[in-house]
UniProtKB/TrEMBL annotation:
This is Uncharacterized protein. Belongs to the 4-hydroxybenzoyl-CoA thioesterase family. It comes from Ureibacillus massiliensis 4400831 = CIP 108448 = CCUG 49529. InterPro entries: 4-hydroxybenzoyl-CoA_TE, HotDog_dom_sf, YbgC/YbaW. Keywords: Hydrolase. CDD domains: 4HBT.
């Protein structure tokens, strides 16, 4: 299983009044994880946007397990859970430095033309990228 990892130093601004990371910041970290995965595979998401495509989120689920706090370092682990003609599901684990799980999540994305938001298969935009996602997808 191909898993990308990205370390994130937790900033004070990411915490709430209780001193723990505010829940919405995990979504930002997931985006950072997806970007790292794409980069690790040798592809360029910005290149897709330059060609007129974007990848909106269709669905997202997250389970919070153990709070994270300012000063800690989070590790975001990201992988392709499944990939089909029009949808890609990414899986995530956000870990504490000791390896314990702070959160798990999945997000479902599609590719659309920026001009009209019509779905467009990755295979027609970049067949090599599409083949790589099919190869590394955990659930085929």
């Amino acid at each position: 299983m191909f898993v990308s990892e990205k370390k994130i130093e937790i900033r004070y601004a990411e915490t709430d009044q209780m001193g723990v990371v505010y829940h919405a910041n995990y979504l930002v970290w997931m985006e950072i994880g997806r970007s790292q995965l794409v980069t690790d595979l040798g592809f360029n998401y910005a290149g897709l946007e330059e060609r007129g495509y974007i990848s909106p989120v269709l669905d997202l689920s997250i389970q919070y397990k153990k709070a994270m706090r300012y000063g800690q370092v989070a590790t975001v682990r990201t992988w392709v859970d499944s990939h089909s003609k029009l949808k890609t599901t990414y899986g995530y684990e956000i870990l504490h430095e000791d390896g314990s799980i702070a959160a798990t999540a999945k997000s479902i994305h599609t590719l659309v033309k920026k001009e009209n938001f019509r779905p467009y298969p990755l295979s027609k935009i970049d067949s090599i990228w599409d083949e790589k996602y099919l190869e590394i997808a955990v659930n085929k």
